[in-house]
Design a protein that fits this description.
Blueprint: E1 12-13, H1 16-22, E2 32-36, H2 42-48, E3 54-58, H3 62-72, E4 77-79, E5 96-101, H4 107-116, E6 125-133, H5 134-141, H6 151-159, E7 160-168, E8 173-174, E9 181-188, H7 199-209, H8 217-224, H9 228-233, H10 247-261
Parallel strand pairs: 2-3, 2-5, 3-4, 5-6
Antiparallel strand pairs: 1-8, 6-9, 7-9
Bound molecules: S-adenosyl-L-homocysteine.
């Protein structure tokens, strides 16, 4: 019997209907799959039943990695490492379909790492199907003029199209987490703004959203040294709040910020 470790965010998905639903979202047959945090292998079994070409799993917990090895033998390639330390691009030449019932304490860190580290137009995945805490999922998918809109929505939408598949109640997991969850689907965008350094997107949104209830004027002046021309050019009313600017305006602000520095 495996005892779940709270520190590793171990809440295993046990609802068979949900597990079946997850592996029917996209075609798995003959695809190369990457699963993050396979845990006891509940989702992994369902993935294998769909006849993928190859399955890689990344599991940090040594005991679980040993159990997976024992249960699945050479049907999957097990990487007993921390996902945050993996260079996914080096795992395989095929594009991955990625599944993950992510450990919630690092879920946004994983997503941010993936988006920030993508090479210009080379995506190492064809899609991501990921479970988040419901409240975090709402922040990821939210659009401007919403109180949930913020840094992670702007970062996600930069290179990915995002949609919610469904909400999942906490009683679908064991042990049962305190929060509900949502399953999100991400697909690479064909066109997106090209930044000199993606870190500048983080920098700009951080300065704006650290003061989310203040007028835009203050963070704007902080970034552009009072250069009002840029606000005029982008049609920004500086008496609005950070949540009132749409995605594209943020990406344009990053371009302006970068051009001032080059
Ligand atoms: N997918 C499984 C378990 C999800 S729980 C299921 O649905 O049943 C989250 C899993 O991620 C756990 O197995 C946990 O050990 C693993 N994990 C936690 N932190 C990790 C990290 N940094 N890198 C890789 N795996 C991690």
């Amino acid at each position: 019997m495996i005892k779940a470790k709270k520190s590793l965010g171990q809440n295993f998905l046990i609802d068979q209907n949900i597990l079946k639903k997850i592996v029917n979202i996209v075609e798995i047959k003959n695809k190369t799959i990457l699963e993050i945090g396979p845990g006891t292998g509940n989702l992994t079994s369902h993935i294998l039943s769909k006849e993928p070409k190859k399955v890689f799993v990344i599991e940090k917990d040594k005991n679980l990695a040993l159990k997976l090895l024992n249960d699945f033998k050479d049907k999957i390639k097990i990487i007993n490492k921390d996902i945050l330390l993996i260079n996914e691009k080096k795992l395989d030449d095929d594009k991955f379909v990625v599944f993950g019932n992510l450990p919630y304490n690092i879920s946004t860190e994983i997503l941010s790492k993936w988006i920030l580290n993508l090479d210009k137009s080379k995506f190492w995945f064809s899609c991501l199907i990921l479970m988040f805490q419901k409240e975090v999922a709402e922040r990821i998918i939210s659009k401007f003029n919403s109180s949930k809109y913020g840094r992670i929505s702007i970062l996600s939408n930069w290179k990915l199209d995002v949609k919610k598949i469904c909400d999942i109640k906490s009683n679908s997991f064991s042990p049962r987490p305190k929060v509900n969850s949502s399953l999100l689907y991400f697909k690479p965008k064909q066109f997106f703004f090209d930044f000199d350094n993606p870190k500048n997107l983080e920098k700009v949104t951080k300065i704006f959203f650290n003061q989310r209830r203040k007028m835009l004027k203050k963070p704007f002046n902080q970034l552009f040294n009072g250069n009002i021309e840029i606000a005029r050019k982008l049609n920004i009313d500086l008496s609005l709040r950070p949540q009132n600017l749409d995605f594209e305006t943020y990406y344009k602000l990053v371009k302006e910020y970068e051009s001032l520095r080059s």
